[in-house]
Structure formats: structure tokens, C-alpha cells
Design a protein that fits this description.
Low-confidence stretches: 124-128, 151-159
Helix content: 25-40%
Order of helices and strands: EHEHEHEHEHEEEEHHHEE
Strand content: 15-25%
Number of helices: 8
Mean pLDDT: 84
Strand order of the largest sheet: 2-1-3-4-5
Radius of gyration: 20 Å
Shape: elongated
Number of strands: 11
């Protein structure tokens, strides 16, 4: 399963570096364009799942860039991320073709949630069905592990929902989708980490899942690979 591709068009170097690190850590594959001209070129010559777009860009202003993309027929969902955050600014951004608009400064968790919502909205096959993990379920679209059975809100109702990254979700979905299958490292690399180099990514993300969901969530089959365990 290939990683979700994000085009970040942002001219503030420190902010761009932070966003690239954040999104890459969440499992996205990120390309950065530092100005409107390079953003236009990348958007028209490569395929992206979502675009994060600043407004005050050199070369081509952000909304001008967005309107050019829409006139070219590009339907990729766009989140405008900018310091221009009055009501009139937001209306102008949405009318120019953006699907969402978030002002700076922003909350990181809100940004990630809005990106997930855009990706679900753009995917006609997206589903909120829960994947059975035994005592818990995996909500693939929401990237949550939740307790099985009716949801309760009292404080003594059991484990809280666990938020997963994109890669953690993909790895857990792969294992849980074939609970009796033992996957080799090579198989997991091909399915979940196709663009990564080496096989350390598998061990790293299995470690993340065990830290979040317990040591038995993934079983190591010595000399072979990994399979779904208990949750």
C-alpha cells in the first residue's frame, strides 16, 4: 500500500521544515515547493492526494495558484494554511476552489484531523466500518483503535480510544485483515513501506504498535516474520 502523497506549498522555511517532519512522521510522503511557481509545476506534473497551500507566496500568490489549478481541471483537494484568516479571506479561499481553510497559528492535531477528513471525503470507497481485533476494533478511516461493543462514556468503561498514525494504521490493517497469516518482513515492506529503504521500518512500527496497544498485539514468529496477536 503506497503512502498518501502531500504537496506542501509554503515559503516560510522553518514552518515548512516542521510540517515536512510532522507529516512524514505521520506516514505521508511529502514534496515541498517553496514558491507558487514551483508549486504550480509540481501540482500539474505529479499526482498528489492532497495539497497544503499557503497564500502569501512569492512568484504566484496562493489563491491565484489555486484558481489556475482548478482551471486546468485539477481536482486534488486543497487545504489553505495561512495567516490571512478573516471571514472574507476564508470565503475568498473557498470560492477559489479550496476544500478547507485553516488560519495560522494552528493546532497540529487539528491540522492532521482536517487532512484525514479531506482524504476520507475525496475517497468514494472510504468506510467507517470497524475491523475486528478481538477485544477491540480498528476504525480504519478514523485511525482509531476502540473498545469492542457499545461505546460508553463513563470513566470506568475500559481502555480509551488509541489514535494511530497513517503507517501504524496500514500495518495493523494488513495484519488484522489476515489474522492467521504469518507475514515476512519483505511482504510487510512491499505492502506498507514500499518506498522505504531497508527493513528497519517494519520493526520500528511494530514497536510503536506494541507500545500503544500492548506487547501481544503483534506476535513474532521466529525465523519467519510476524502475525496478528491479541488486543
Amino acid at each position: 500500500m503506497s503512502a498518501t502523497r502531500v504537496l506542501l506549498v509554503e515559503d516560510e522555511r522553518e514552518l515548512a521544515a516542521m510540517l515536512v517532519e510532522l507529516l512524514t512522521g505521520e506516514g505521508y510522503r511529502v514534496d515541498h515547493a517553496p514558491d507558487g511557481q514551483s508549486g504550480l509545476h509540481r501540482a500539474l506534473t505529479s499526482a498528489y492526494d492532497v495539497i497544503v497551500l499557503d497564500r502569501g507566496l512569492p512568484a504566484i500568490e496562493g489563491l491565484d495558484l489555486l484558481r489556475r489549478l482548478r482551471r486546468k481541471g485539477l481536482r486534488t483537494p486543497v487545504l489553505v494554511l495561512t495567516a490571512y484568516d478573516t471571514v472574507a479571506d476564508r470565503v475568498s479561499g473557498l470560492d477559489s476552489g479550496a476544500q478547507d481553510y485553516l488560519g495560522k497559528p494552528f493546532d497540529v492535531d487539528e491540522l492532521l484531523a482536517r487532512l484525514r477528513a479531506l482524504l476520507r471525503r475525496d475517497d468514494p470507497g472510504a468506510t467507517t466500518d470497524l475491523l475486528d481485533l478481538g477485544e477491540r476494533h480498528l476504525d480504519v478511516a478514523g485511525r482509531l483503535v476502540v473498545a469492542a461493543g457499545p461505546r460508553r462514556t463513563d470513566s470506568g468503561s475500559g481502555p480509551d480510544d488509541v489514535v494511530l498514525s497513517v503507517r501504524e494504521t496500514d500495518l495493523l490493517r494488513t495484519l488484522a485483515g489476515h489474522p492467521s497469516k504469518v507475514f515476512t518482513r519483505a511482504e510487510l515492506m512491499a505492502r506498507v513501506f514500499p518506498e522505504a529503504e531497508g527493513e528497519n521500518s517494519v520493526e520500528t512500527y511494530i514497536s510503536y504498535l506494541r507500545r500503544k496497544l500492548g506487547p501481544d498485539v503483534v506476535r513474532t514468529v521466529r525465523g519467519v516474520g510476524y502475525r496478528m496477536g491479541r488486543t
